Amino acid sequence: MPQNPSANLKGQKKINLILVGFGRVGRAFYGLLREKRALIKSRYNLNPTLLSILNSTGGIASDKSIHPEKPSDICSSDLTQHSLWQKGLRLEHVLKTTPAGVLVECTPSDLQTGEPGLGHLHLALDNGWQVVTADKGALVVDFHGLREKAVRKGLGLGASAAAGAALPTLDVGRVSLAGAEITSLAGVLNGTTNYILTQMALGTSYEKALEEAQAKGIAEPDPSLDVGGWDTAAKLIIIANAVMGLNLSLKDVDVEPITDVSSRTCVSVQNGGKSLKLVGKVHKIKNIFQAQVKVEAIDKCHPLYGVDGAEKGIVYFTDTMGAVAIRGGKSDPRAAAAALLKDIINIYHRY
Amino acid sequence: MPQNPSANLKGQKKINLILVGFGRVGRAFYGLLREKRALIKSRYNLNPTLLSILNSTGGIASDKSIHPEKPSDICSSDLTQHSLWQKGLRLEHVLKTTPAGVLVECTPSDLQTGEPGLGHLHLALDNGWQVVTADKGALVVDFHGLREKAVRKGLGLGASAAAGAALPTLDVGRVSLAGAEITSLAGVLNGTTNYILTQMALGTSYEKALEEAQAKGIAEPDPSLDVGGWDTAAKLIIIANAVMGLNLSLKDVDVEPITDVSSRTCVSVQNGGKSLKLVGKVHKIKNIFQAQVKVEAIDKCHPLYGVDGAEKGIVYFTDTMGAVAIRGGKSDPRAAAAALLKDIINIYHRY
Questions:
Q1: Which of the listed residues B119, B187, B220, B269 has the most CB atoms within 10 Å of its CB?
Q2: Taking 60 as the threshold, does the pLDDT of residue B69 lie above it?
Q3: Are B245 and A151 in contact (CB < 8 Å)?
Q4: Are A156 and B350 in contact (CB < 8 Å)?
Q5: Mean pLDDT across chain B
Q6: A12 near A47, Cβ under 8 Å?
Q7: Are A166 and B3 an interchain contact pair (Cβ–Cβ within 8 Å)?
């Protein structure tokens, strides 16, 4: 049976897309868009059309779709080999010469400065483009600046891919809990550290567990942002600022790495019926919201108990709706791309 | 710190509300609206204003808010005692004489005919009113008819309160998984039966567990819709039709009651490391989606394992985002009212 048969009541809307950043997530988005094009047309009456891809040295741009119809024509990861390659092509030029649509930002940015992504996002909004982003840095540094600009201009700012990707932290916190007061939240927001701690609870050493995670592609070659707790802190800040309207920055979060935990402790906690997790938490202490990332022993009746391996989860505690917990959602580049695509659809589609 | 400081950039929008049905959920909505009015104004720039309350014999209506400012003025559950009471006041009259806003439908309707709620919802849409509803019957019988009318007229149809209430089944299925293919779903959608089965797994008899649930206000005096599986089937149909675009009706669902299960079986399954749940499920058999409500033994690694007592949960299995599970959300009338309010906010507010 067709999904959402109520679509197709209005004419199809063309959405011009510019993709910035062509690493793992950018390439996954490129592939996913081709794969999902027919479904997005039939289910949502939307026709997202990729007109440009840019990286730090240049890019390709066209006034018609640069998306090949045949999978065999897929753009190589080396953009410079593309027939339309223009060295030095700049985002500003493409934004100004293309009818506005959505900027898809996939550049990994510095958590301290938010650049280069922050500049891209402001530039896009300044030029009347909607934005969706997988870039944590820009949002950690200036979520409210971006959000206020987007609201003032009536533009969308999709941040799902930077805040848990396929785990819908922002949707649930803002849409599903609209009108509720969130009194606290807790999340297992980093699959790499959760995988390592889960393995350590089975008796594996930290070093061995990290090696395994790297071999499986779960951990990066340089795992320091993950194991140091900074990736969790970054997501926590984005979620707290977007969902709870807080104004946290990295310096406000008390961050603890997982590297101080021994395998013996993990096993012993597990044997005691609890489970060690790297938990990002926002809660009130003396009536002021405090944020922390700490290794905590989670009880069996806690909603995050059982969120094991590379899985992620979050629980919101509210005044009117009780505790609402979400878990799961794949953590690979394709899932991040799916989160970008979801945000694009939700800018245009109403339920 | 204030939540969502980016609000207040545009003028406040007045939203006229008509509340139909003044039972447990209707009264909870009335109370919650008063309690949340200031927050909704400051956070969302919205000013929902209750102008009318109707029941099956008449109602009250005014051209200004009928919401008292002081809690002590709260409208008694007996509408006929209100100074504005008009016997025989009809919804159609109020809809036609009030500038359009949102109809809040809280009439419990028959699962076979969908009435009287179905008539209310069509009438409201016909008169240009948005609708939000806690009424399962109307949606089970004619979700697509209502949805198509709403889409054609550019109106919202909020159904969260009828499909899990504070458990955001529809938001996650439609918004968070937009663009993904849902290959199957499974839910523990009824708190009463889940409470009973959880107690039975501890050795309590069915009769005793039901009595306890009734004493705690979890089970209705007549529990037949719950224990017979029909409440689960109704929610399953609404979710499958709204999220997956299926066209299921009650006759399409294979429904099993929990009354055939013995306490001994529950205990034995529990001792074997699994857990008996009344699971509503939509999955493909020979490439065709099939719906069923059955008592199933859930494995420890299943996302619904641990959803115990009066708690509810749902898991969506998808092509691009993996399995996304939600659990929790209170089940009382106040939580259902919060789900109605959430849907109203989301008709007007953009993130």
A1: B187
A2: no
A3: no
A4: yes
A5: 93
A6: yes
A7: no
Looking at this predicted complex, what is its ipTM? 0.94
**pLDDT over 60 (residue B72):** no
Question: What residue type is A172 in one-letter code?
Answer: V
Nearest CA in chain B to A331: B321
| Contact list, B342 vs chain A (CB under 8 Å) | 175-180
The whole-angstrom separation of Cα B159 and Cα B103 is 12
Structure confidence by residue, pLDDT tens digits, B159-189: 999 999 999 999 999 999 999 999 999 999 9
Average pLDDT over residues A90-94: 98
How is the beta sheet containing A157-158 ordered, strand by strand? A86-87, A58-61, A46-54, A13-20, A102-105, A130-133, A157-158
Q: How far is B84 from chain A (nearest CA, A)?
A: 29
A10/A106 Cα distance (integer angstroms) = 31
Using one digit for the tens of pLDDT, what is the confidence trace for B257-266? 999 999 999 9
B contacts of A9 (beta carbons < 8 Å) = 148, 151-152
Peptide bond into A116 cis (omega under 30): yes
Residue with structure tokens 């993950």? A226
Of A176, A168, A167, which is closest to residue A194 (Cα–Cα)?
A: A167
CB A213 within 8 A of CB A219: yes
Q: How far is it, in rounded angstroms, from Cα A310 to Cα A209?
A: 12
The answer to whether residues A34 and A70 touch, using CB atoms and an 8 Å cutoff, is no
Residue A329, min C-alpha distance to chain B (Å):
5
| Contact yes or no for A35/B319 (Cβ under 8 A) | no
